[in-house]
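Before relying on records like the one below, remember that each one covers exactly one chain. Contacts with other chains, cofactors or solvent are not represented anywhere in the record.
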Amino acid sequence: MVTLANILKGKSENKDKLLNQSNLKNKKLPLWFINIDNNLINNTLIDALKILPANFIVYTNNTELSNFDNICFVEDTKNELNSGFDFLACNNKVDLLSFMKSWVVPIVSKTNNLWVLLNEFNAVKIEWNSYIFENNSLCDIYYAIIRYLENFKFPYDNKALVKNVINI
């Protein structure tokens, strides 16, 4: 029988594998996958991510970027480890549904092609399944990431959010 405890255990094991492969130093921080197709936002966003209490694996074709203590750059990901991510920030380039089936919380643009399935998480009512940014601007993306980080601090709310992601 598949239980939430078993699923979360599998997520934790895959997270450990991703952290080990990426050489990120602090294993206790949440692990995030960033895949945003605008290089200007990507590069600008990197500076903002450096100061956050989280680990980031950033998909990019820019091989000139250097890793940081909490940021690792990759050109490819292994789908079987997707469930190890706590969240995914993207606009339209990724197979969002496959990440969501792996219990990864989406942070997406309002223009995402799955917008009909996604609504901003409401921690008071414990409903909905994502965090949404209005525009592809640094401020909007960063604000959505901060909202998720605030939720992540509360285990009950975060578990409810993860359950809502899979119950689409």
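Strands lie at 31-35, 55-59, 71-74, 87-90, 105-109, 131-133.
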